[in-house]
């Protein structure tokens, strides 16, 4: 499966952005999807994940209550709605697909990765 992330940009602290990740290739609904991010000089970290059914989600504690992951299997797309953005949310955001279909916060479990979209939050 090929993944294409989009929607990043520059936003002021307290603002919102919605990231999208469009998938092509194989059956999108078989994959669990995740979002990860990597800030300058830091390791990549888990942000959110959603089960292949869309019924279950999981979030990093740092974004819980502010970010929402969702998916539209008919459109082969996963979204990350980011509200109340903070300067520390500044990073390159990556979407990833896990062939097991199960939620995971471990990047090693993901089989396919998108190219990343940059989010910059100004304080």
Tell me briefly what this model is:
The protein is built from no helices and eleven strands. With 123 residues, the chain is mainly beta.
Fold blueprint:
Blueprint: E1 2-6, E2 9-12, E3 17-24, E4 32-38, E5 45-50, E6 57-59, E7 67-72, E8 77-82, E9 91-98, E10 112-113, E11 117-122
Report the end-to-end length measured between terminal Cα atoms.
37 Å
Give the strand content: over 45%
Q: How is the main sheet built? A: 7 strands, mixed
Low-confidence stretches: none
Helix content: under 10%
In N-to-C order, the SSE pattern is EEEEEEEEEEE
Which of globular, elongated, flat, extended, rod-shaped describes the shape?
Answer: globular
Rg is 13 Å
Task: List the total number of helices.
Answer: 0
The residue-averaged pLDDT reads 96
Structural class designation:
mainly beta
Give the strand tally.
11
């Amino acid at each position: 499966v090929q993944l294409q992330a989009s929607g990043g940009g520059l936003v002021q602290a307290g603002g919102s952005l919605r990231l999208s990740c469009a998938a092509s290739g194989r059956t999108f609904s078989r994959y669990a999807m995740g979002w990860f991010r990597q800030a300058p000089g830091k390791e990549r970290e888990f942000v959110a994940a959603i089960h292949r059914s869309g019924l279950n989600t999981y979030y990093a504690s740092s974004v819980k209550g502010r970010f929402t992951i969702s998916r539209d299997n008919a459109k082969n797309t996963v979204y990350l709605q980011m509200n109340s953005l903070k300067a520390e949310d500044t990073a390159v955001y990556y979407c990833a697909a896990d062939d097991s279909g199960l939620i995971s916060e471990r990047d090693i479990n993901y089989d396919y990765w998108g190219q990343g979209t940059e989010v910059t939050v100004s304080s």
